[in-house]
Amino acid sequence: MLLEVKNLTVNYDTAMLLNDVSLEMDTGELLSLVGPNGAGKTTLLRAITGLVRWDRETKQGTKAGNIGLQGKIFFAGEDMSNLAAYEIARRGLILCPERRRPFRELTVLENLKAGSYMYPGQFASSIEFVYHLFPRLKERANQISGTMSGGEQQMLAIGRALMSKPKLLCIDEPSTGLAPLVKKDLFAKIKEINEEGITLLLVEQDVALSFALSTRGYILSHGKIVAEGNSQDLLKDETVRRAYLGL
Ligand SMILES: Nc1ncnc2c1ncn2[C@@H]1O[C@H](COP(=O)(O)OP(=O)(O)O)[C@@H](O)[C@H]1O
Ligand SMILES: [Mg+2]
User: Fold this and answer.
1) 99, pLDDT greater than 90
2) pLDDT digits over 63-83, tens only?
3) Closest residue (by CA) to atom 10 of ligand 1?
4) FRET label pair with 94: which of 4, 36, 77, 127, CA 20 to 30 Å apart?
5) Are residues 116 and 151 in the same domain?
6) Domain range spanning residue 115?
């Protein structure tokens, strides 16, 4: 097993953001995590990558600082509970955050360089992989990234995450705000990344598209896992469709 989340509970003050969440992933999988807005999906990705604990440590003693975090996260058999976010990233557990966030004032190439800061010696091979996957980024290498289209910026955000050599890449809502054709293209790339051997945890609003790519899925609602299993079975389940997927 590559990732094992065991009974994870997160609260910010009195708000229970995650409630006893458990989740498992094997190496090579493309797993979908879906659920309504505010369900806790981003919080789960941030907890897995050490950022909730970073919040807790940096905001302790401030008004926002009353953060509770219980449960265990194992990655490649190693307990992540006491590792800092950068140490978790160094082990290959990488987050591509929501609302695509390249450094807008930097060029495409500068963004990709920033992504490779942990492995400067492997810059050449990493960028070759990213350019092979996204030829558009190669064409636009010297463009200021904030001037590119939404779809191109999302590709850059994923490209930058790939520069840090992920073993498991968590992608948070990559298709939000993209036109249908751009979205379709992006999902094809996501599939390709997985076929290149990178394990993916995909958080998406577009359940149908996301479940079409993944073999397994988890549904999160109000901070709890309410269903999990084979993606096609979940899509066929009437209760799941009506209650959680709005289909
Ligand atoms: N830093 C924070 N402090 C307090 N509440 C938060 C914080 N971040 C998120 N929340 C709340 O936690 C809930 C889950 O948020 P989030 O994980 O972003 O959900 P999702 O990604 O599924 O839309 C929401 O109600 C949100 O308002
Ligand atoms: Mg979110």
Assistant:
1) no
2) 666 889 999 999 999 999 989
3) 17
4) 36
5) yes
6) 102-165
